[in-house]
Design a protein that fits this description.
alpha+beta; about 70 residues; elongated; Hydrophilic protein; single chain; about 35% helix; 3-stranded antiparallel beta sheet
Length: about 70
Amino acid sequence: MGEAAQGFRYVERADGTVVITHHGRVAGTLRGGRAAQFLAEVGDDPQLTMARWTGNYRRGNERTARQHPRNRG
């Protein structure tokens, strides 16, 4: 299959904002209810959760898309 997502970190700020970074770059900022929902969910598998919340994860269709005539080089 694929590798587990790596390189994600998050910081919860004093104002309740959550900043998610990927390899040192900001990948997403969550505020209010979304930040609280993220913090409730992040305990299970933090790397996968952060990848899912930022949209930075493999969807499983990369190989199929690579074979499409439009994407051939």
